[in-house]
Amino acid sequence: MYCIIKMWITIYYELIFIIFVICDNEDIKTSRTVVLDYSDLAQEAESNKHNILKFLNQTRVQLKYKTQFNRLLHKLQATSNTSRRGPTRRIVAGVNTSIAAVPWQVSLREKTYPICGGSVVTSLWLLTAAHCLLRPRASELSVRLGSSWKTHGGEMYDVKQSYVHPQYARNTKVNDVGLIKLYSPLRFSSRVLPIKMVGKGNRLPADQAAVVSGWGKLKEGGPSATFLQSSTIKTIAMKLCRNSGLDRNPIDPGSMFCAGAFSQPSPDACQGDSGGPIVSEGMLIGVVSWGLGCARGNFPGVYTRLSAPVIWDWVHEHISQDS
Ligand code: 4AZ
């Protein structure tokens, strides 16, 4: 009896692994063996063995196993990125990234042309940079979600209304945050999920690792990405950032923070990544806002500080209306 149970569990381990690989074959056309602990999922799947696909498609299951699922994808990507050609260096100096690893990532378009990034914060609200929303009318905006590719796949949604932070200032770039309201709630899946926002007033330590993602330029003045890019960078102490090549005047510590590195070449956000997410410890801490060129070494990237009360309150006033 014990052997039979053990055999079933082994078969389901394999099956679940294969299903996850097949489900994501848009991005990863490899099935190298990756060792991960799937015991919880395998045991739950065991009791659903007659209808395993239906089981895996349940939002409850996908949410519950999201972390393991994403870890598997990261591992697969790490193996596919480092094999043969060595790592592919993009965002600037980032890596190809499946949307399933950052399912809150949004591509914002103006009349089908991709202009900025954004993040899913609830089923009806997306967060972006204020400066992405200054020109286009809401009727000219749409968003693509759930695809690793910039120009195809996933689902497109129309924008009902866009909102720019009332204290955003174009000249100083303070409070660079905007919101997008959709007509219809998003259908969440393993590729479309909201990201939890940082708490109000939360202190952001220096040297904290954070992931920035987007389809922006792969290098300053170069082409932009067709496949989603991400990179892990570190937050920079305000004192250091204000002494960088960026100069102290344009950096408002209340509504901005810096991230990246002073060495060169170092990963950085670039044109087209604006409005996109920077996530640390599972929380959205900032929005790609501005910089002086990309990955220049002495000019770290500047991000909107979402924990700032003036920003946090405004965002939550809107998204708590209806989510
Ligand atoms: C931009 O133009 C932009 N290196 C965004 C981020 C950075 C530079 C420029 C940071 O959207």
From TrEMBL:
**SMART domains from the entry?**
Tryp_SPc
A Gene Ontology molecular function term of the record: serine-type endopeptidase activity
* GO BP: proteolysis
- Which Pfam families does the record match to this protein? Trypsin (PF00089)
Which UniProt keywords are present, listed alphabetically?
Disulfide bond, Hydrolase, Protease, Serine protease, Signal, Zymogen
Residues covered by the Peptidase S1 domain: 91-320
Highest taxon above the source species:
Eukaryota
InterPro entries hit by this protein:
Peptidase_S1, Peptidase_S1_PA, Peptidase_S1_PA_chymotrypsin, Peptidase_S1A, Trypsin_dom, TRYPSIN_HIS, TRYPSIN_SER
The entry's family comment says:
Belongs to the peptidase S1 family.
Q: Which protein is depicted?
A: (African queen) hypothetical protein
